[in-house]
Amino acid sequence: MEKVQHSKLITFPEKREEFEKIIGFDYIRAQLSPKTPFGKRYFQHIQSLKGEHLIGQLQDTQYIIQILEKNTKLCEAVENTLECIVDISQTVRRLETGEVVDEIELFELKNFVLTVQSLREKLLGFLDDKFIPPNLEDVLNLLDPEGLRMPTFYIYDLYDERLKEIRKKKRELNKIHSEKDDPEGSEMEIALENEEREIEKQVIERISENLSQKATELRNAIEKVRYLDVILAKAKLAVELGLSMPSICTQEIEDARRLVICDMFNPILKEKLVAGGKRYQPVSIEIEKGVTLIVGANMSGKSVVLRTVALIQYMAQLGFFVPARVCETVYFDTIAIVTEDAQRPLSGLSSFAAEIKAIDEIYCKVKENSMTSLNSLIMIDEPARTTNPHEGTAIVNAIVELFESVECYALIVSHFDGINAKRRLRVKGLKSDVQLSGATINIQDYIDYQLIKVEGDEVPKEAIRVMELLKINDEFVNKAKEKIDELNKKQKN
Q: For residue 246, which of 97, 173, 316, 323 is within the disulfide window of CB 3.0 to 4.6 Å?
């Protein structure tokens, strides 16, 4: 089986577990259910795929999904068989280097081969050859010369004709000493025992030598089993979470090429809402090369959009189906996200300082990537949120201009007015038909999370409306309105 070529994906934060937690991939990982040690190890150390290998895994996942839909019983039987697979990787490595293995390893190896043969029988005629492990009958004959096909290992008499005679003599002597109540045995028995052990040692050496010639077949079987387990786990995840196959352009990115994601959803948030009897509103977005700015009021889901886009892109590059109805994207060498909870602890620095250090680091890396024709996807959530609006606006404008000057795709969220971005999206926000009532309402139920294109540089002002809907004390609301009017007058003057 052709070895999969992995690609080096740079993430920010650089620690992959930190990055995965921020975007929600730890939730995805927890939903996976690989059955073999090989599949579990693959997902523990999963790597980004590229080119034909990436496209191939996506297509194979789609193929297995179709099998799942047609033959549920077959898939259950395959999973049950996969759960019986033992890890023989270390044994195969030892055989490849010409080492002599022990009886425990031979026992595990025999069990592996028996299970693979059973798996092969189940798959023949149902799945494509790429998923079917090789026929290991020759290996099985080496481990089971008597053809009993039992999940045990024993150094059979058939391995060496001398063993049959020695073991016969041992049984006769043992019977004699048992009748005479002589537990000590005899010197002859000891001699036979030593001779038997020496022959068994020679047998194991011969078996190991013969198996070393079958190491390639065993390695191929491991790879086939691993791949089947991985694709089956990805297919089941796609069915369970309602994921769809992404379309990934593997060619050179053209300036006009866009990332198109239709009806995306955040799996974690969707699960919580559905569990609470609420409906999740999918969101669509198009991201062009350069900077796309997202504005909107608080609680309008801007940060969720960033995390979901990052999750979708990351999953796509790992060969997963994604939480969206449609996803047309390209391959990125760098995926970076800066959010409030992504700040790395920097001794003696404020959260603002940590944030700016992170953005600066990303910018320098993106600038370097641009000069080497590498592609970057950058997402920044509310930069300079902790500064005063005057300086914050200036800093965000600087960030926008810098990332516009380099070859990258950047998605920036901000609540500041006066941000000069070529492409602006706004969360539609509070629905206009929301009526005040006697009872306190859940604001999220009355927000339209759609992203719409907008002109101008103002951010929607919905805070007072939210206060009213939350039944905040009239005195508080009126005082806030009064102060807003005062600020507006100052700005006009």
A: 316
